[in-house]
Amino acid sequence: MQVYYDRDADVGLIKNKKIAVIGYGSQGHAHALNLRDSGVKNVVVALRAGSPSAKKAKAEKLKVMTNAEAAKWADVVMMLSPDEGQAQIYQADLKDNMKKGAALAFAHGLAVHFQLIEPRADLDIFMVAPKGPGHTVRSEYQRGAGVPCLLAVDQDATGNAHDLGQPLELVFEIPCRREAKGGMGAEGFDAGRNVGQIRQYLTFVDVLVVRQGLGYHRQLLVHVVQRGCHLPCQWQRQQ
Q1: Per-chain mean pLDDT for the chain
Q2: Which residue in 36, 94, 115, 202 is deepest, having the highest Cβ count within 10 Å?
C-alpha cells in the first residue's frame, strides 16, 4: 500500500480550481469549509432547489448553486450527498452538464464500484475517502491536524486524476473496490456472503429503519440485490 504525506502533494493543483461540493451534510460541510480555509479560491456548495442546507452554507459565507449550475461551472465536482441519491443526481444534473475533462470525486466507492453510476469516458473519476465522520474531519483540521484518507483513481481521462486527489488529505492509495467493500462494515451489520443472504437481511434492515433510522440502507441493498452483486463484507451507516 502506497502512503502519501503533505510533502508529497502539490496543493497548488487545487487552489485555482473551481470546486463544487454536492451536499452540505456531515462530509459536505467539512470538505467545503476545509477547502475554503486552505486557500481554494472558488468553492461552491451544490444543493437541490429548496434544500434547508442552503441557509447553513450561506451562513458560512459559501456560495450556493443548484446541482446542474454547479456541474456546468466546476472543474471538480465532489459528490458528498447520501449514497442512495447519487445515481439520480448524476443522471439528472451532472452527466450532460459537466465540462469535458472535469473531475468527479467521491468520498465512498460504492456508487462507482457497484456501477450505480457509469460515468462519461471523458471525466476523471477518483475517490478521496476520509476515515472519520465529517465533524471529526472538520475539528481535526481546525486544530491543525487531519484524519487518514483513502485515495483511489477509477478513471484517469486527463492523466491528472491521481495528482488532483492527492493534496486533499494524508492518503493511503487503495482500489475503489476495496474501499467500497471494506468500508461498508465500519458501523453496520453483517450483510452476508451472497445475494440470497442479503435478501434475508432486508427483513433485519426493516427493523433498523424504525430503531436506528437506517432507511436509506434498504434502498441501497435493494439496488445491489437487483444487480446480482456479491458482497463479502458488511454494511456501513452513512456518516
Answers
A1: 77
A2: 94
